[in-house]
Amino acid sequence: MSDLPPILRLGKNADVPVALYGARANRLSKLRSLGLPVPLAFGLSIPTVNAIATGQMPDKKALLEQFGKRAIVSVRSSPGQRAWGGPGTMLNVGLNDETHAQLRHRLGDAAANVLYCRFVQDFSVHVAKLDAEAFDGLSDAACGQPESLAAALAIYQAEMDEPFPQDPVLQLGHVLRSMARAWSGTTARILRQARGAPVDAGLGLIVQRMAIGLGSGESGAGVVQFVKPSTGESAVRGRYLPKGQGLDAMRAGQVASYIATDKRGTSLETTSPKTVAELRKFAEIARMGCHDVLRFEFTIEDGKTWLLDAAPANRSPRAAVQIAVDLALDGAISRKSALLRVEPQNLQQLLHPQIDPDAKAPIFVRGLAASPGAATGRIVFSAMAAQASAAREEACIMVRQETSPEDIRGMHVAKGVLTQRGGMNSHAALIARGHGLPCVVGASDITLNFKEKTMTAADGQVFIEGDIITVDGTNGVAMSGEVAMVRPDLTGAFATLMDWAREFCDIGIRANADTASDARMARSFGVDGIGLCRTEHMFFEEDRLTVMREMIFADDEADRRAALDRLLPMQRGDFVELFEIMQGLPVTIRLFDPPLHEFLPHSREAMQELAEAMDLPVSQVTARAEDLTEFNPMLGMRGVRLGILMPEIYDMQARAIFEATVLASQNGAPVVPEIMIPLVSAAREVELVKARLDAVAREVQREAGVDFTYRMGVMVETPRAALRSGELAANSAFLSFGTNDLTQMTYGLSRDDAGRFMSTYVNLGVFPEDPFHTLDLEGVGELLLLATERGRAANPDVVLSVCGEHGGDPTSIGFCRAAGFDYVSCSPFRVPIAYLAAAQSAVRGTNKQTEDLVVT
Amino acid sequence: MSDLPPILRLGKNADVPVALYGARANRLSKLRSLGLPVPLAFGLSIPTVNAIATGQMPDKKALLEQFGKRAIVSVRSSPGQRAWGGPGTMLNVGLNDETHAQLRHRLGDAAANVLYCRFVQDFSVHVAKLDAEAFDGLSDAACGQPESLAAALAIYQAEMDEPFPQDPVLQLGHVLRSMARAWSGTTARILRQARGAPVDAGLGLIVQRMAIGLGSGESGAGVVQFVKPSTGESAVRGRYLPKGQGLDAMRAGQVASYIATDKRGTSLETTSPKTVAELRKFAEIARMGCHDVLRFEFTIEDGKTWLLDAAPANRSPRAAVQIAVDLALDGAISRKSALLRVEPQNLQQLLHPQIDPDAKAPIFVRGLAASPGAATGRIVFSAMAAQASAAREEACIMVRQETSPEDIRGMHVAKGVLTQRGGMNSHAALIARGHGLPCVVGASDITLNFKEKTMTAADGQVFIEGDIITVDGTNGVAMSGEVAMVRPDLTGAFATLMDWAREFCDIGIRANADTASDARMARSFGVDGIGLCRTEHMFFEEDRLTVMREMIFADDEADRRAALDRLLPMQRGDFVELFEIMQGLPVTIRLFDPPLHEFLPHSREAMQELAEAMDLPVSQVTARAEDLTEFNPMLGMRGVRLGILMPEIYDMQARAIFEATVLASQNGAPVVPEIMIPLVSAAREVELVKARLDAVAREVQREAGVDFTYRMGVMVETPRAALRSGELAANSAFLSFGTNDLTQMTYGLSRDDAGRFMSTYVNLGVFPEDPFHTLDLEGVGELLLLATERGRAANPDVVLSVCGEHGGDPTSIGFCRAAGFDYVSCSPFRVPIAYLAAAQSAVRGTNKQTEDLVVT
C-alpha cells in the first residue's frame, strides 16, 4: 500500500484498498474499472484526510486542474464501512460568479441560479457553520429567481463580513477541512463506535466531477436498484426526479416519479426506456463485478447516464437470503461467501409471519420483542377462553398480566401472547420462544381488568374480550385490528441456503424438542437428533397436569406411585412417538426437572379444581401448596434431588423410556435412548440414579425378552458440576452443558428476576451483553472450557454439548466450535440460525466476529 | 518395630507402638513401666491377631505357661483408638473343674461357683455363640448354688453335644479366635469406619492375669477417676462393688457403692480409706506419666489393689479445657499439646448455659439443635408479646411456626427460640446463631394455634402463652418448666486456653458484628477487627424497620431520598459506636445487601402498619409488595445491583461511614474504614460504585475540612466473581469470600430450601457433610484457591479472607490457613472456636485431621 499516492485517480486500480481509501473509493474505482460511466474521481487517502484535519493541505490546485478548467466537483466521504457514517456529500464545489455565468448559458438562468444559490447555502451552513435559519424562505423554487441568489450571497457576506469565496481552490480547501474535522468530532466518534467502528477508524474523501442533471435535454437524478427489498426478487425499484440533482428524488415532500411503470404516475421507464435498460445493464455488470446487488445514485446529464455513487441494495433479511443464493448460483460469489452474506439472527424473521413493512400499523402499546413473528386474533384473557376460542376455530391472542404454567395450555392454542409484565426471560417469553409463538411482554402501559375483561391502552382506547388485535413480536408492539403480513417461505432460496449451511457446518446441531410437533419441525430442518427433551414439559396439557399435580401433592409414596402408574402409559406413548419421528437419530431425554412452583396451582379456582380431583378439602391442598413453596425455587428441590428423594419418579420415567425403546425398535431402526440427569452437583448423585436406571433396564429387558442399550449422561448446570466434570465424565457417556442455569448460578442471577435491571445493566455497560442471550465467555465460558478439559481427560470418548438458549446464539456457537464440542442443541426455531452460524464459523476458520458480512 | 515379638510382655517397654499392639496395650505397658500394679499381661500384635482370624494360632500353651500353673486370665481387645470399639473383655479364661475346685478352697463355694458359672455362660454365648436365652434364670445370685453351675455345664453339653472344654489352652484358643473374627465382621467394620477408623484398622489383644475381687479379705472391683466429669475439677468419682469383678459396679440395676463419701450410702472411702489414698497416688503417677487424667478399672484382691485397665477420664467439653490447662500448668504436657486436647467445636458449650447433665428433663418435643445453649422463660407467640414480656423484665421464649424479619425485634429480647418448621439454615437458626441465642427449629410434632395462643405437644400436653418452658439448643429439645443449668464460665482455664490459642494462632481472626453488643463481645475475645458488618441488619429494630420499608417502598428517587435522609443519622451513630468500641482496629462495613423479601411486610397487620406510616392506601402497599416479590430472592436484585440501580442508597451509607470516621477519629485512634461491596459479578460494578464512594469521600472531606482514607474491597460470593478475581483484585484493597452464598451458587442450592433434603443427602452419603457447615473443599474450595491465586497475581498486596459461617468451622479454618488467607471472620460466638482451630492447625504444622486429639 505504501506505493499508493495520497490522492489516487479512481478506476486505474480495480481493487483500491479499503483500509487506505475507504469503502466508497474502493467501490467507485471498481465500477470505473468495469467500464461503467462513473465521472472522473480522485480518492484522498485516510492519512491525507487526517493531515487535512490538523491543517496540512494537499495540493488542491493540482487536484482541481485534473478536472479541467472551471470544473465543478462534488466531495463525498469514504469511511471504512458504510455503517460508520461520515459527513454528507458536498455538491457543486467550484461554483462562483464565473462558472455561474457559464452555466446560465448551458442550462438556462433558473437552473444555474438554483445550483449557485444552493451551493452558497450548503457552504454557508455546513462549511462556514452559519445558522440555517438565516436562509429561511430560499427554497429551490425561490432560488430560480436572480433576487434569491443575490440575497443568499448577501446573507453570507453580512454574516461572514467578507464576500462569498470565488476561488474554487479556496472553496475546495474549506470543504475538505470541514469534512475532515467533522469526522474527528466527539459525537461522530461515539456514534460510529456504537456502530462497531474501531477507535482509530479513519475517513477517506472522494472528489468527483459533477454530473449536472439540470440540462435542457433529458436530465435528472435518481436512485435505482433491480431487486425488491422485501423479497430479493428481480424488480425495478427507485425514484427519479427530472431536473434533479444528487438525492433530490428521495427528499421528503419531493414529488418525484418512480423508475418502473408498475406504480402510478409518470415513470422513467415511460419517458426514457433506453435509460432504464442502460441502468439495468450497468447493474448486471456491477453485480458480477462487485459480487453484490447494488443500488445506484445516478444522474442523467443531457441524455447521458452517469453513476455517481453505489451501495449494496436495500434488502430485508429474506431478500438477503435470496440475493446471496442467486449470486452464488450465478457464479458471482462462492457458496461460502453466500453463507457469510446472511446475518444468522435475521433468519428468525424468515421463520415467522412478519408485519408487511408497507402496512399501516395502528400501534396501541410498545413492549419487549420477546418472541419474533406476528399474529392476529381475538383477545382472550384466560387459558380457558383460549381453548374455547380454539374450539370455535377462531384465532386468538392471549393477554395476561404474566403467565404461569396454568396458562401453557392456553398458549398452545393461541396465535400470539401479550403480557403486561415480565422481561425477555419471563415465563411467557421462554415458553413463546420455545414454541415459536409471537410474543410481546412487559407492555406496562396497558391496564388489565380481568373482572370486566377489558384492556385499556395508555391513550384511553378500551379493548374487550373478542376484539381483534395484532401482536408483532419481532418489533415488540401490539396493534389494533388486523394488519397485513408477509408469510414465511421456507422453500426456495432459504432451503438452498440451509443445504449449503449443513454442508459446511462441522458441529452437530440438535433440537430441544418436548413434543411431537417440535420434533417434526426439528426433523424438517435436518437436525442430527434431539439434544434435550424436557419431560416435565410433557405434562402441561390439561388432563396430565392434574395427574402430575396429584403426584406432586401425594403425601406418601403409595399415593405417589398411584399417580405415577397413570402417568407411565402417557410418558411411554410420548417417547414411542418421539423415537418414531426421529427414526433412529439420538434422542436425549432429561429426567424430570420440575420447577415445582410451576406445577403448583396458583389461583383459588385451580386449588379448588385440584381438591376435587384429589378428593381432598381445599384447605389441605392449600396447606400442601404452602408446604411445597420454596424461597428460591431455582435453588431448591429440583432435578436429581427430587429423583433421589423420591426415586419412584425416575423409576417410572426410566420404565417409560425403556418400554418405548422396545416398542419403537420393533417398528424401525434400533433406538439407543440417551438419559440425562439434571441439576447434578455431586458425582454420588449420578451413581445413585445410575444404579436404579440399570435395575429398571434389566427388569424391562427380562419382561420384554429383548436386549437394548442406553446411554447415560449428565446435564452440567451447576458451577460445581462444571468443576467436577472429570469425576462426572468418568462414568457418563455424555455431558451436556445447560448454560441457562449455569449462567444463573455463575452470576448469582435469576433469569426470572433479572428483567428488573438487565436493561439498565447493559445500558450502563456493567454487562456488555445480556448473558442469557450471549454466552458470557469470561465467566461461564471459562467454566465450560475447564469442564471440557477435565471431562475429556477423564473420558476421551465423552460426548460434549451445549443445550439451552445459547445453543442457538451465533457468538456462542462459534465458541462451542472453538471449544471442540460435539454438538449444540437449541429450540427448533433456532436450528436454522445454529446451522448458519456454525457454517459461518467453519467457513471463516476462526472465531472472529469482525468480518464485514455484507461486502466481500 | 520389626524386632518386636508377636506376643509382647507389657511393661518392659514404656512405649509400646500403638500401630502394632493397639492403644490399650500401649497404656497398660506404660502403667506397668511406671511401677503401677497392673497384673502381668501380654500384648498380641495386630498381625498376630489377623493370623488368628484366618486360623493361624500362636503358641497358646507357651503363652499360658508364662502365667504359671492353673492361671486364670482375661482377654481384652486393644484397637488403635478406643473409639473404634472392639469385642468385649472375656474374663476368667482358664476356669475348669480343676481350677474351680481350687478356687472353692480360696474363695469359698459360692464365689467359686459364681465365677465358673459366669464363665461357662460367657463362653457359651460369646465364643460358642449359643443363645443367651438358654441360660435365662442363671443370675449371679442363682449362680452361687452348685445346681446352677451344674445346669450351666449341662446346657452347654446339650447344645454343643460335647462337654464344656476343660483344657485352658483350648479355651484360650477359642476365645482368641472368636475375638479376632468378631473384629473382621461386616457390622463391626462399618461401625468403626463410621467412627473414623481406616479401612485396614487392625486389632491387638491383651491376655492378662485375672485379679479376682471375690476373696474373703477386702475384695471387690470398681471404676474411679479423680476429676469431676462436668467441670474437670479435682474430685473423686466412681463406683465400687465389694465382691465384684470387672465392671460389675457399673452394671445397670447393680447396687454398688460410691468411692467417695460425698454420696449417700457406704463408700470405699469409709470401708477402706487406704485403698482410695492408694488409687489417688496411682492416678497422680499415671497423670504425669501418661500425660492425661485416667479413669481406672481396678480390683481389690484380698486387700491388694490391682489396676486392670485405664482409659482417659470421662470429661465434658468444659472439663476437657480444665484438664488440659491443668496438665500444661503442671508441666505434664506442653501448651501446644494442651491446645490439641480440646475439640474446637465443643467450646460452643462453654459459651452458653447448658442443661445440667444430672437434671431431670421433661422433654415434650424434639427438633433440630439449631443454636447451642439452654434457656428458660415464658412462652410468647409473637414479637410484640416478647417485647411486652421484656418490658416486664420477664424472661421469655419465642415460639413461632417459622420466623421472618418482623420477628427479629422479638428475638433480640427473647431468651430462646422454638420453631415448628425450618432447618439448620432457616431464618430462625441463622439469626439465633448470630446472636448466640439458644434455638430449636423444626420441632414438627408441636401444633400451634395462634388465635387461641396455644401450643400442643404430640402427647396432648397443652401450653398457653405465659407457661414456662426450657429450650435446649445444644441437644435440640424443649422441656416443660424450668430445668437446672450449668452457667458458662469464661474465666479461669477457658481464658488461659484462649491466651495460648491466640499465642499460636498465625492467621487473623475477626468477628462478624452488626451491633454494638456484638462488637463488645468480639472485642472481649481479643479479635483483630470486625470482618463483616452487615448494615442491613442494623435496620431490624422497630423504628428503623418502618423507615427502611418506606425507603424500599418509595416509588421514586425523591421519596427514597427523604427516607434515606432519616436513616443517615441513625447509620452514622451506629458506625461511630462501632469505631469507638473497636478503638482503631479495622472495621469492614458491607454496603447494604438486603434480601428485599425479608424487609417486605408479610402479615396483614404489618401491611396496615406500613400503610399508616407511609400514609398510603393498604391496597397500594400490597401491590408494591407484590411488585417487589421475587421468584428467587437469593438471585434477585440484591447487593451491588440495588446499589447501582438506586445509587442514592450507597451514597447515604458512604456518607454515614465517612462522617462517622471523622467523628470517631476526633475521639481516639484514626479510623480507616473498610467498605465492602456485596454480590459482585462483574468488575464494572465495582468501578461504578468506587467512583461514587470517592465522590462522597471528597465531599465529606471538604465539608469537614478533615483528611481521611478508606479502603475498598469486594465480597466474592458469586462463582463469577471468584473466576474474575484477578480483575477485581487489581482495583481492590481486599477480597473477602462470602462462602455462604458462594456455596449456594456453586451447588445451585438455597440454604433456606436445602433443609428439606439435606439430612437425607448426608445420610445417603451424597454429600459427605452439609456444605454450609463444612467448606466443600472439592468445589467451593477449588474456586477459593483459584481466586486466591488470581487475586494475588493481579495485586500482591490484596488482603484475602473468608467471612460467613465457614469462618468459624475448624476444618474450613485449616483450609484457610493452608490457602494463605490473611484472616477469617465469623460470628462473635464462634471466635474462640476459630482461635483454637487455627492454633491447632498451626501447632500441627499441617492440615491433617487424623491426629488423635485426646491421647498423645
Give unreliable regions of chain A as ranges.
Answer: 847-856
**Helix segment count of chain A?**
36
Oligomer description: homodimer
Portion of residues in beta strands of chain A equals: 15-25%
Report helical residue fraction of chain A. Answer: 40-55%
Radius of gyration of chain A over alpha carbons?
33 Å
Distance between the termini of chain A: 19 Å
Shape of chain A: elongated
The biggest beta sheet of chain A, please? Answer: 8 strands, mixed
How does this model look, in words?
Two copies of one chain form a homodimer. Chain A is an alpha/beta fold and 856 residues long. Helix content of chain A is 44%, strand content 17%. The first copy, chain A, is built from 36 helices and 31 strands. The first copy, chain A, has an eight-stranded mixed β-sheet with strand order 12-22-21-14-15-16-17-13. Chain A has an eight-stranded parallel β-barrel with strand order 24-25-26-27-28-29-30-31, surrounded by seven helices. A five-stranded antiparallel β-sheet of chain A has the order 1-2-5-3-4, sandwiched between helices. In chain A, a hairpin with a 2-residue loop joins strand 9 (294-301) and strand 10 (304-312). Chain A is elongated, with a radius of gyration of 33 Å. The first copy, chain A, starts with 6 loop residues before the first strand and ends in a 12-residue tail after the last helix. The relative contact order of chain A is 0.07. Chains A and B meet through helix 26, helix 28, helix 29, helix 31 and helix 34 of A and helix 26, helix 28, helix 29, helix 31 and helix 34 of B.
